[in-house]
Design a protein that fits this description.
The chain folds into 2 domains: 152 residues, no CATH class; 73 residues, no CATH class. The radius of gyration is 41 Å and the shape is rod-shaped. The longest helix is centred in the middle third of the chain and has 77 residues. Helix 2 runs parallel beside helix 4. Helix content is 79%, strand content 0%. By secondary structure, the protein is mainly α.
Length: 237
């Protein structure tokens, strides 16, 4: 379908003579077919970029890797196209024989059309490079936020475990102490003695754990107590 020799446009005698005397006429069709092929690849890359921008949160790493591949592929396509840009600028090769009017004007018109197509192709490459970089930045930010959330959750879990240990380790030591075979204790102590000693320890542990909340609650209750306190004689005056 993209065979450049199958789509040569010969509109009049000038095109026919240009085809016979000027290799740039054939080269221009080859370049035009190449640009068409590269634009089709860019269309496929654009669809892939759209899919990566809407990737599932569980596949962020795969989405970033795909965007890096697309970005490098665009750079490779631009590298291949650079050779064609030299051919367009020089209208083939400087070593080729020059043509005269009116073939020269037809050749310049063909060069102008190719240059417009090639500039549009380079603009699309730059646009998709920018889109890949922005999409990678967004996905990287989402991945970092997700890691921060996991780290915060783990920190809360460690805090909860520390609170449990702060409460139950003293209790286990107390139970172990009363369960030892101590000569001074002629008989095992009553369970009520253990409970009587354990409850204050639990209250103290809970008070130390929630001391900030208790202090905040006390500060909030202070204005209420001041309102209920009767005014003194000096305050009335």
């Amino acid at each position: 379908m993209l065979n450049p020799l199958r789509h040569l446009e010969i509109r009049d005698e000038l095109d026919h003579e240009l085809l016979l005397r000027e290799p740039f006429f054939v080269l221009a069709n080859i370049i035009r077919s190449a640009v068409t092929t590269w634009n089709m690849m860019l269309n496929a890359i654009e669809e892939d970029i759209n899919a990566c921008e809407q990737v599932n949160i569980d596949r962020l790493q795969a989405g970033m890797e795909q965007l890096r591949f697309n970005n490098s592929l665009i750079d490779r396509i631009k590298g291949f196209a650079t050779v064609s840009s030299y051919a367009i600028h020089n209208m083939g090769s400087r070593s080729w024989p020059a043509v005269t009017e009116p073939l020269l004007q037809r050749k310049l018109d063909l060069q102008a059309v190719l240059q417009i197509d090639f500039d549009e192709f380079k603009r699309r490459c730059a646009l998709f490079n920018t889109r890949c970089e922005k999409a990678m930045t967004i996905l990287l930010t989402i991945a970092q936020l997700r890691q921060s959330q996991h780290a915060t959750i783990q920190a809360y879990q460690v805090t909860d475990l520390s609170r449990l240990a702060f409460i139950f380790i003293p209790q286990s030591l107390l139970v172990s102490a009363f369960s030892m075979n101590i000569a001074e204790l002629h008989r095992p102590p009553s369970v009520w003695i253990v409970i009587t000693m354990a409850v204050p320890m639990i209250i103290v542990a809970l008070g130390l754990i929630h001391r900030r909340k208790i202090r905040l609650w006390a500060l909030q209750r202070r204005p209420l107590r001041n309102r209920r306190r009767p005014a003194t004689e000096e305050e009335k005056i």
